[in-house]
Amino acid sequence: MNMTKSLIRVMPEKELIPFIGREVNVYGTSIALFRLSDGTIKAVGSRCPHTNGPLAEGIVSGEFVYCPLQNWKVSLTTGKVQAPDEGEVPTYETVIENGNIFVSI
Amino acid sequence: MKKLVMIGNGMAGVKTLEELLQRDNTRYEITIIGDEPYPNYNRIMLSNVLQGKTSLDEITINDWNWYTENNITLITGEKAIEIDRGEKIVETEYGKEIHYDELIIATGSSSFILPLPGSRLEGVVGFRTIEDTEKMMQAAQCKTKAVVIGGGLLGLEAARGLIDQGMEVHVVHLLPTLMEQQLDAPAARMLKKDLEKQGMKFKMEKQTEEILGETHVEGIRFKDGEELACDLVVMAVGIRPNTALAEKSGLEVNRAIVVNDYMETSDPSVYAVGECAEHNGMTYGLVAPLFEQGRVLAAHLTEIKSPGYQGTVLSTQLKVAGCDLFSGGDIHEDDETDAIVVQDAVAGVYKKILVKENKITGIVLYGDAGDGNRLFSMLKNETDISDFTTAAVFQKAGEEDEADLLAEMPAEETVCGCNGVTKGKIVQSILEDNLTTYEEVKTCTKAGASCGKCQPMVEGILALTLGAGYDAAAQKNGMCECTALTRDEVVAEIKEKGLQTPQEIRYVLEFKNKEGCAKCRPALNYYMRMLRPETYADDKASRLVNERMEGNIQKDGTFSVVPRMYGGTTTAEDLVKMGEVAKKYDVPLVKITGASRIGLYGVKKEDLPHVWEELGMRSGYAYSKSLRNVKSCVGSQFCRFGTQDSLRLGIRLEQELEMVDTPHKMKMGVAGCPRNCSEALTKDFGVICVDNGYQLYIGGNGGTEIRECDFVKIVATEDEVIAYAKAYVQYYRETGIYGERTAPWVDRLGVDTIKVMLQDEKQRTYYENRFTEAKDTYQEAWSAMLAKTQEKKMYEITRV
To answer: Where is the Rieske domain (chain A) (predicted)?
Structure first.
């Protein structure tokens, strides 16, 4: 299978407020973007595996986001749902260039 | 099976059966004949019902199921009128004939109604039954002046209850001092002073001669000719054992039905227990001795050996907030008693201990009754006090002393007087069922389940039994997974250490997770803004989704839009606009919400700012922890029953109290008359308009756990309603746990605490002003969001 990845520009960096998620739709794939307290930018699949909750709307703490619907805790680094719940969301690499955020997909 | 019949369905009798069934539930076929149409209820809590601290439903001890589950035949609303002791048959007023092998008479007692002219007028009640209590509460709804005859325990509790119900109350007492059976003169004087501060009025050394009125009470006249106008008279001059039936059937009756140590009457197959029984020349009217009698009788009926009933030394406490008193043993001095007295008029503390031959025989404590149980236990155990210095007798027991005392306490000694739970039973349950908290012990053993007075002792026994395994911290709940500190501790630390940001709080208070979690992030944000309205900037990132997005998230990730409709009112223009916007944005559902407003459901996130802008209306905060709506009926503007303009008041309330964050959502209601169409009695704050003003209610809930409001008082003007509402909400803001509705909050703090605050003008004004200061920092949410170009971007979804 061809695993070519491309970097897609999604938004200007300054538009992403720390801790407040943003949803972007890249060629039909919905991705949630977050800026953490240390300034790093994370990108994961935007829907919680539990009841499809919009992760971009969740509360962010450290490198985790809490799903706004049923409070599942999801790692923004690994995409793994934290115990006692189980599941995983896809993660995407992000790059910042010339003040713009790029997502690798 | 032998047939056991009981006449009477009150606390003492039913307790006897409970104890009996515990010992042996196969021995008897049981029938109860009770003339009150209720299952067994906790009569001692009636004064709490009247004082609005608890509701009638909550004082039921055995509900109907209990009787069914235990195969007990219960006949209620029917009197037993005849006992045929020869044939062993009880006859009822409707002609039932019930055969017995053993018969228990537990007919209790009735209020003693003074045989005065006019004592049968409407509006004269005793204070004894649910019916009496209901009559008093009804009277308080439409009448203003009450007289309580009798300044004893019951009379004072009734008087306080009527004040809580909004009445003006005079207590009439024959003697120069109150509660003369339990208190000596100095303590009684202090009590009277404190009660006067609470608004109670007294007519001392007054003998009532006549109750005035045509069909209904209009006043009373004393022997000295003075008259006092009133429209309710409560007789609380004592109780009279119900012995008529026993007398008629030829049993030995003195003041009450005479029984021996095994509660046997003069007929060995007939027993008497409770207030209708006389043992050793004594009759009892308090719950602990009656339960003790019940246990003795249960043992006897199941042929278990017991030393029998030996009489009870009594102790009492008054269930009136702000009057801390304890009385135990014989408090009357004579030539053989010595008295140790400590009096501190400044602190309002008075303690007297009577001593005979180095043993405590009587205790009167006023103002600080904390040592009551310890001293009373010394009295009962006949502890020799020669080893104690006087000071030590009075010293507030330190932790160590308390623990020593509990350790020395014999296993068979009763810890919970209401339910007769011994120390041994508690220890055994802790060990066998692995109990670790007071709540668990309460559930398993019933210790503390009635009046809760013994909670400190139960906790002490827990600590003693578990030793190092006792986790004091586990007794309380930390705020979240990040900290073991409770809400109160965190707030106290913020104040004390002057912490300015949530991050600072988490670092200084050593939260496990330095960025907090989904539970403490919103909570800390709330506490900070509550504490520092002027300097703390709200942190959107710490708001849960609904409050961050200013809309309620739906299960599919869309949102709802519910504009403000003050008091449930709208206009033709607004309706047209809402229709147009709903059409334009393809809104899948338009619905009248539970809070009588119009909601647009299923609005896409990206559309939210546009929808708000085009509607041009204020947010209804239907998603927030703040005031949702004030449900109002149309009131006197349109309704023929309306007594006041409830709609105008509802609109004003909503305007004055909207937007400000509270620990949880709040709903209010205003009803134009006691028909209560707007369901104000199950709201966080409710107002019932009446002819002479506005009745204020607090702490109701119609949600998860239905709770009826507690009455606070009647105020005369709309402005006062607003002032009280603001003070109440601010008090809730400053003492509530984030996420706690007012109903559990009121229960946690105690209705009285809140009432005392509201009735104290200085405090009320303080909280009212604090609320106003906070409100000034709030801006309407939707228009504010539309003005923030940066934050508004969070509604956008970038598409590539």
So the answer is: 8-103
